[in-house]
Amino acid sequence: MSAVTGSGERGLRKVFEKPDLLLSAEHSLCPGCGEPVALRVILEAVQELGLRERTICVAGIGCYTAFPMIMDVDVMQALHGRAPSVATGVKRVRPDAFVFTMQGDGDMISEGLQEVLHAAARGERITAIVFNNAVFGETGGHMTAATVLGQHTKTSVGGRDRERHGNPIRISELVAQLDGAAYVARSAVHTPSAIKLTEQYLRDAFQCQLEGRGFSLLEILTMCPTDWFVTPAQGPAFLAERIEPTFPLGIIKS
Amino acid sequence: MPERVLMEGSAAIVEAAVQAGCRFYAGYPITPSTEILELMSVRMPQVGGTCMNAESEIEAIGMVWGAAGCGVRSMIASTGQGISLMQESFAELANAQIPIVAVNMCRGQGDYFQATRGGGHGDYRFIVLAPSTAQEAADLTQLAFHLADKWRNPVMIMGDFLLSHTSEMVSFAAPALAELPPKEWAVTGAKGRRGITLSPLGPSEKLSTDVAAALANVTAKHSAIVSEEVRVEHGFLEDAELVVVAFGFPGRFVKYAVRLARERGLRVGYVRPISLWPFPRHAVASAAATARAVAVFELNAGQMIEDVQLSVLGRVPVVAIGGISHDHSGFGVGPLLNVEHILKRIGQVYSGKEDP
Amino acid sequence: MLATVHIDQELCKGCDLCVPACPPQVLVMSQAVNSKGYRYPLLLDGCTGCELCAKVCPDFCFEVYREASGSGLAVRG
Fold first, then answer.
1. pTM of the model
2. Shortest distance, CA A133 to any CA of chain C (angstroms)
3. CATH 3.40.50.970 corresponds to the domain B4-180+217-228
């Protein structure tokens, strides 16, 4: 008796499939990576809120740079760290566009910290989305400004050490201090319930932009088993036990 | 005749940009370009545009990237040091084929290499235009926006301290520029079409992976630009035994010095490159063909002289008669920018007392 | 509730995130591998159509089918 893997059986209707805005399910990210899960949530929200034709995504540089080619929305590829500035230029000349950035912790918190802080301080009516896996994934596993204490990377081999490597930066708490930031939250994608949180917070953040309340930031903790040196199946547990304690989930400002 | 107005070079550039349809500006204060930011912060809101006081030159060029990527004519201005901070974006704007106009109000002329060879990475080029008067600055700014859109390639205006702060009569006649196609490539939101990706990394069609072809398109434009967009002014070359090459505001001083030398019976001519890239090789080569020597006057340690040497290819000696020259602040005009001094140097080369 | 999933075995990269996420625990990794050399999930009886496998999957392998309404019998192959 083989399990049923056919489709369209008698009286069953399809209730879930890949997002319409995903042009191809083929992507180069590692087994167990959390970023495609975050991408699914983003594309579903854009579709659900009917924003596709107004959307301009400004992408940073990281593993997710593979996504612009499979997203059926207009994307402007920015240089590493510069997405919030590029998005500012976009939103200022196209105030009716729906603008969000898609960045990694290395892109936003290391390379482009000045950009995101000033965009938030100015209250740009854009949504900044950062996939935080606490490591430079695309280069193969190097320390970022969000790497947690004790975390092994190829540039903090014995584990991040306060004296030698300094302390991780909580971007959400930092941005929340700025008056222009109207909505700031942190979620994750390592469990179904965390994914539910991401779906809810992302809609909150998008709503904040749609209502013109100001700058919105959603920080999504994502698994990176390859550069955490764990198996894909161990990714969720590593996130829960080693990453999340430094980056607690929840709505930080709204 | 369109009305003529007395204004500084930087104001002429701002007005010309506004008339060219520039509706986005981002900048950061830095002498001697700050007047452009000041004026833009007043003028952009008046014409429904946007002027951003960016928190750094890196952010400023990022904002211009975003606006220009949406198809809006956009400008940025700085001086050499600020332009240095923008280089990564400059190189990749060229790769992404996003048209922008960047103004460099140099301190002296030490940024020639930066502008014409590029301070960024890779094989990109900027079209570089060097005005010598406020009127020419206005005309070249209008042209810059046109060429940027025509070639989908950034264009730089190379000015300097004098151009920025010298007031002259300027008129803004509508320039006779060819009609340009609509910007199909611009990012606008995928209304009624599939999404596109505007990227320096490669093609804009979704799912396409032909990166090599996309980047090849960028450099393939260079030969066409070189053949079509050279601009140069020259005079007194018919019987010139000595040809003086100089650009920008100093080029104007040289024109005047050559006229004085002619009055004193010296057979001297001049070539003033208006486009620094593409460099007017043929004009310099043909002027040198009938001369005994070529002199180069530029306010740096010798940069454009290399392009002159590449044009002359050793047929006659090429002599530097300029040099580094700053005022005490390091921002402004130095002692070498003086007609008598230029005349003296021309005389020395002309009479052969100058060993090349 | 009559329900099942369709699994695109070729898309799967064998990350094994879906198996522990399945409440009735009716997913098990295959011994066979796909053309990329990855094992992939197989569906046993008892799928409730809850979509959690599809939600946690980084490679969009799952399509979920549910009966419009009616009994909870699982479909047998």
1. 0.95
2. 15
3. yes
